[in-house]
Amino acid sequence: MSDTLGLSQRAITTTETILQKYGVDGEKAGAGFIAEVLETLAANELLTFGFSDPLQTGPQPGDMEKACTVIRLLAERSGTLATIYMVAGLLGPLCLSYAGTVAQKKALLPRVAAGELQLAFALTEPGAGSDAAGITTQATRWDDHYVVRGEKTYVTGAATADLILTVARTTEGGAKSYGILLVPGGADGLSVEPLSKLSGNAYPSCRVMFEEVLVSESGVLGGEAGVNSAWPQLRKTGTLERLIVAAMACGFADAATNRALQFVQERHQFGQPLRDFQAIQHTVVEMSTLATGMRLFLEDAIRQHAEGHDATQAISMAKYFCSDQLQKVVAMAARVMGGRAYFDFESVSRLYREAPFCLYAGGTIEVQKMLIARSLGI
Predict the structure, then answer these.
(1) Which residue range or ranges hold the Acyl-CoA dehydrogenase/oxidase C-terminal domain (predicted)?
(2) pLDDT in tens, 264-276
């Protein structure tokens, strides 16, 4: 993949600046941690891709390659930073770009690009995860407002979000009549409960309750035309989320492989360097081979999307392969490191906790297989 205008170096420098202050997992984070992360990303021009242009719709040529480059490099150094970037810097603005009116995009996207607006995306419910058609949260028209009632879960970033992009079933349409509502983070009737998770708690995922939350008509993404037409936009955003997660998995795999390679070159056992043991050599070779295969899957998916093809199959294959093989790469890194990998001071222990995220974000492996099967006509 190409490196435009020193994008990689900016991403690395930005990450190192943030980590030096806040720690890899944001363990030194204070109240302004997420806001400062976004401001720092913006100051280094990492939030200004084509889909932040109010006059454009969706990503422009080269945008997804750039986005995947940045998130891969962030993930290599911190899953927490990569997740902040994915949710607030990519998925939120992509959704706005696809579905928003020109007026909404003019009002919101420049603030996102400047790191001034935090977004969260609320889709999953206790009874509706991969089955988005099972959503029960409702938005009912009432005078010149909509009343939102329901519950969402695993909403990353909701605790600090200025706007929560909330997918709700609208009462005027049919089975797939959904709207996306821009719910202010401090709205009356809105309650947000952070949920403890395996990693990344400095950027919590939350349970969100909507108890007759009022949203004005202007708060429906896409305006009146968007009330019952969110489904196609959700499919587009969901596809790109899978691509982004595949890139994140590649970053995690690179970090695990590089750390294992460094360790075996430094460590001595039984009077000789660890790198001289053939079993260790073979393990590191397998890790490197899998990580390379992951990158090739990712690059093929990015290329097909950039060329304007229907990249659904390529992206689902990349997400499936990368998230699945990542678990093997990280497990092998942990075995190479021995007991050291069990302790928090070792970076591989962080990767071991962060890697499972890629299995679920953007849809499970089983969902990817279903989408691939459809693309094969079976």
Answers:
(1) 231-376
(2) 999 888 888 888 8
